[in-house]
Amino acid sequence: MIVEFGHFALMLALAVAVAQSVLPLVGFSRRDPALMAVAPRAAMLLLLLVAIAFAALTYAYLVSDFSLLNVVENSHSEKPLIFKISGVWGNHEGSMLLWALILALFGAAVAVFGGNLPQTLRANVLAVQGWISTAFLAFILTTSNPFLRLAEPPMEGRDLNPVLQDVGLAIHPPLLYLGYVGFSIAFAFAIAALIEGRIDAAWARWVRPWVLAAWIFLTAGIAMGSYWAYYELGWGGFWFWDPVENASLMPWLVGTALLHSAVVMEKREALKVWTVLLAILAFSLSLLGTFLVRSGVLTSVHAFATDPTRGVFILAILCLFVGGGLTLFAVRAGTLRQGGLFAPVSREGALVLNNVFLTVAAGVVLFGTLVPLVVSAFGGAISVGAPYFNTVFGPLFGATLLVVPLGPLLAWKRGDLLGALERLWAVFVAAALVALGAAWLNGATHLLAVVGLGIATWVLVGAFAELWTRARFRDVGLSVGIRRLAGLPRSAFGTALAHAGLGVTLLGIVSTSAFQTETILEMKPGDTTVVGAYSITFDGVRNAAGANYSELVATMTVREGGVVRFVVEPARRFYTARQMPTTEAGIHTHGLSQFYVTLGGEGRETDSVVVRMWDKPLVTLIWLGALVMMAGGALSLADRRLRVGAPNPARRAVPAVTAD
Question: Is the pLDDT of residue 618 over 90?
């Protein structure tokens, strides 16, 4: 009965979404406040109905209701509770229902927290959200219904894919979806502005918190997915340039550009057309990622291969919103009043340069991701892998990082490049010392790593240069400087932290990529080998069992200088229901570095196993940097200026008539 109630709630949600997408627009065209007022009420009701449907599906998983096809295919009565819950979205149908739930959640958030929006803008934003909800709810009900019943239920389910039975995969998809779907709000604001034909600094102030929230969640989702792939898949890497990984990176790059563009628009009312275009593109790339993962065109550990009907439906949604949004942009962009003038050397100019690098980098990733699919569609075969992305994407993103410390030190409208560089002399010295130190320790064999460490230090230390400059410690002294520093807005500290996080992540990437030590060999109990500074002894193996798997666990003692430092226990698991093996890495974190061991198959000799070991210096900085970036975003989001009012346009010396 509960399942049927959830199914009925989902059908009602579709009807409410249709009303939300139509009635506010009719009210806008007729200037009818009563019809426009339907939008926030419909958004709240939509959230309630989708939440009921999601709760009903979760209940079916918790009680192992094997009369539901979705539960049979993705659950098992002996599966641990946390994976019964995560199994709700660990499949195609459930994940799309989670998408619809988050979509409704963001729409309801606009209804609740958008009281300071003009009624027409809020009505149009929620109407656009209604369009998106209608499309995805129709997709779920017609091609991906999670509530399909079986006439003859089996006694037991087939279990969830063992690779997905991990805490990281319980957290990763919701975070990623909060980022993907969060950009739907930016898209809705952009389309609403194009419908009204009006966009100004107030619009940028209203949209920026939503973009920032989506960016924070997407950063968290990408970082969590990277760490999950690192420790769960047993290959020892943190990024494979898998097409599904790229699908999350592209909206992150464009969303980052959108954040910076919105700042320019808010402060100077410039880059209006560009900001609207980025808002459309960020969500378009999120939809593209959904198409790649859910359509069945990719086979990946991250993807759910599905039937062609679903792929065609998602492709239609993609064409409708991307094509429709870009068409409306092409028709209306020329009617938008352009913003203020600024010199090439200015803070606006630096942010534009940042945007160019980020969007071109996203284009490079898009090209490398889609070309193999297009060639395959015409019967050919081509592989685009890490060498392409590292060669093309790396320099572009490196150029972006070089500009990061410089931009905040330039004045708005017209800046002093030489003066900004002079204020960064100490940052340059720190970066040069780190690079020279790395070159002295490692010789000329790691030239690119030396450059990378220098750039990482430049970004990390330079992130705080603006705070130092605005505090004016040299001019006013320590106590007054501290008071000036304390009086700065939270967004200033948030920006510094976010930029510093990039530097921290780059330090981790360069260090572990260039200086890690790897060994692959066969070992028998009692054998000892050396990896880096460590001596590793293979003590033997033992059998163990979990709730729904059996495993073979190896014990390895790690010594340094003859002293036992730690023990690692890699394992090979076998899940009975799915008849699938998995590899569980043995990882020990020491400081900011990690020792990483995985078991391969049986060796050629009796009782021997193939062992793969890495000593990974500073590898944890990759994900600690992401946490710092997220903290910076959260601190900026807490800035009171993003929650009250709209900015007063600054007095301009000349009319703002130039193009973006």
Answer: yes
The three state secondary structure string of 58-101 is HHHHHCCCCCEHHHHHHCCCCCCHHHHHHCCCCCHHHHHHHHHH
- Which residues 6+ apart lie within 8 Å of 603 measured at CB? 522, 523, 524, 609, 610
CB distance 60 to 71 below 8 Å: yes
CA proximity to 190, closest of 249, 139, 129: 129
Place of tokens 């809705």: 188
What CA–CA distance (Å, rounded) separates 446 from 439?
7
- Cα gap 9→154, rounded to integer Å: 26
User: What length is written for the chain?
Assistant: 660
Work out whether the CA dihedral 276, 277, 279, 280 comes out positive or negative: positive
The token pair that represents 619 in the structure block:
């590898």
User: Could you tell me how far CA 235 lies from the centroid of its own chain?
Assistant: 22
Please choose, from the candidates 367, 359, 358, the residue with its C-alpha nearest in 3D space to the C-alpha of residue 388.
Answer: 367
Report which listed range, 79-93, 366-380, 472-486, is most confident.
79-93
Would you say 140 and 10 are in contact if contact means Cβ atoms under 8 Å apart? yes
* pLDDT confidence bin for 383, thresholds 50/70/90: confident
Residue 27: how many CB atoms within 10 A of its CB?
22
Taking alpha carbons only, the member of 454, 438, 458, 457 closest to residue 446 is 438
Closest of 284, 255, 249 to residue 365, by C-alpha: 249
Q: Give the H or E element holding residue 621.
A: helix 621-637
Q: What 3-state class would DSSP assign to 388?
A: helix
Q: What is the pLDDT of residues 50-65, one digit of tens each?
A: 999 999 999 999 999 9
Cα–Cα distance between 310 and 296 in angstroms, integer?
Answer: 8
- Nearest 5°: CA angle at 69, between 64 and 70? 70
How is residue 146 annotated by DSSP? T
237 CB-near residues (< 8 Å, 6+ apart): 229, 230
Based on DSSP, count helices (H) and strands (E) in the chain, helices before strands: 23, 10
Residue 453 pairs in a beta bridge with none
The pair of structure tokens assigned to 117 is 């929006």
Picking from 109, 137, 135, 110, the residue whose alpha carbon sits closest to that of residue 123 is 110
DSSP assignment of 134-149: HHHHHHHHHH--TT-B
Q: What are the Cα distances from residue 393, in Å, to 280, 364, 366, 398?
A: 23, 7, 11, 8
